[in-house]
Amino acid sequence: MAKSDQKMVSQMIQFKKKVSFFLFIFFFVALGFTQSAHAVIFTDLLTFNTTISYGSSQTTGASWIHDITDNIGGNSIGSITLIDATLTINHDDTGMNLTAENWTVDGLGTLVSDNNPNTSVFNFNLAALADLQADGLFTVALTESTSGADNFILLNSTLSGNYRINNANPNPNGPTVPEPMTSSLVGFGIGVSALVRRFFNKK
Cα(first)–Cα(last) distance of the chain, in Å? Predict the structure, then answer.
């Protein structure tokens, strides 16, 4: 065999090794996507439609508890892992406030009550998510951070997010989030593998 042929064969072997390594990494990543594809939505809605009134000397506002244990498809809180969570509070003003009033939502951020219907959205940080993961309960507590008499209407509060079931047989009662990217990745990998195999079989 000529040296040029030997060099070509050596290059082909090296190329084949690189392609095989790439395909191994690709399928490993695709497998990871498949394992994490079973994201399930939870939603806990509380409706109030209550006017919350406070005098100038009061600093502690309303508090309520969200319980997601009845909204995780019949699974126990210990059998799931929360991925994320968002608290959405819809509120309105009675028209008595001349300026916006700020209320601190413990551990999450600030709710501003003004003279217009408003929606306050709070994304859970790691500490709040860990609190919710512990027992499926989360207490929302408002603390006034501005002075003056505050009157606003608390309409509703929604705690929603995504979780993953820890076992391999997720409860079908929960609405699953479709993961089309997983199928696309696996299909692409199979296609590339077939093309590479066909290419080398011709050599």
Answer: 16
Identify the domain containing residue 194 by its residue range.
7-35+181-201
> Quick one: tokens of 181?
């990217």
By the 8 A CB rule, do 88 and 158 touch?
A: yes
In a structure prediction context, what are the per-residue pLDDT tens digits for the chain, which is 203 residues long? 555 666 666 666 676 666 665 655 555 445 444 444 578 999 999 998 777 655 444 455 678 999 999 999 999 999 999 999 999 999 887 666 556 778 888 889 988 877 677 889 999 999 999 999 999 999 998 887 776 656 677 889 999 999 999 974 545 455 555 545 555 555 556 655 665 565 555 55
90 and 190 share a domain? no
- The amino acid sitting at 161 is G
DSSP codes, 51-96: EEEE-TT--EEEEEEEE-TTSSTT--GGGEEEEEEEEEEEEEE-S-
Instruction: State the residue for tokens 């990543």.
Output: 29
Residue 2 lies in a domain: no
Q: Examine residue 1 and state whether it is found in any structural domain, yes or no.
A: no
Q: Tell me how far CA of residue 134 lies from CA of 24, 99, 104, 108, in angstroms.
A: 37, 39, 23, 17
197 within some domain: yes
Domain tally, the chain: 2
